Amino acid sequence: xxxxxxxxxPAFVFWTRDASSPSLKWIKTPEKITHQKRTLFTFExxxxxxxxxxxxAFYKSVHKYSNTIQDQSECTFIKxxxxxRWKPSQDWVLFEDDSLTDGKHSISIKAYDLAGNASPVLxxxxxxxxxxxxxxVVASPPATTASTxxxxxxxxxxxxxxxxxxxxxxxxxxxxxxxxDIELENLTEGKxxxxxxxxxxxxxxxxxxxxxxxxxxxxxxxxLIAV
Length: 227
Known about the structure:
Elements: E1 12-17, E2 23-28, E3 33-34, E4 39-56, E5 61-69, E6 76-81, E7 87-89, E8 92-95, E9 103-112, E10 122-128, E11 137-139, E12 144-145, E13 150-154, E14 163-168, E15 175-177, E16 181-184, E17 190-199, E18 210-216
Parallel strand pairs: 3-10, 12-18
Antiparallel strand pairs: 1-4, 2-4, 4-5, 4-8, 6-7, 6-9, 9-10, 11-13, 13-16, 14-15, 14-17, 17-18
């Protein structure tokens, strides 16, 4: 008589299927226009994960479970700077000192999960302008004058599409001038102040405006003749 003996530990086969692409997002980026020599980008990868399956040879059934991956270490990154080739990357990119020239730049990041699925490309463009304009006044009225007209002339340090902004006395709103000549008319008697700063095309502004003060005195002095 035959005896049927069953294995007490049924065989299981495990496998996973991951067809989802990881996603990328920026954590830290510079401004669209930066004047800093040090520029840092950081980014984060998340993956919806894989769907796992296991099959029981004994029960002849397939079961399904999910496995969501949130660990940054599960992703690998590549980067592309401007027109360079793709290169391996950490989850950050740092530009030090003068490694970037003035002008427009772009950075592209792509992530891969353990299954080799690629994320959509994360891209940003920004402008580097490390040369701040320096405002230089080369002509101004005398420190004391009887004229109610004041003429100021600035050296052109802002370039073709740059301009100047100025304030008179206690005004709070800057006035825009597209020329290096600024003429003020119908000024009252007394002390006056003139603030002027250069602004380049990329909205880079001189951080320290030039301040000039003068006094208008149109009162004729009394002349006494001693006999």
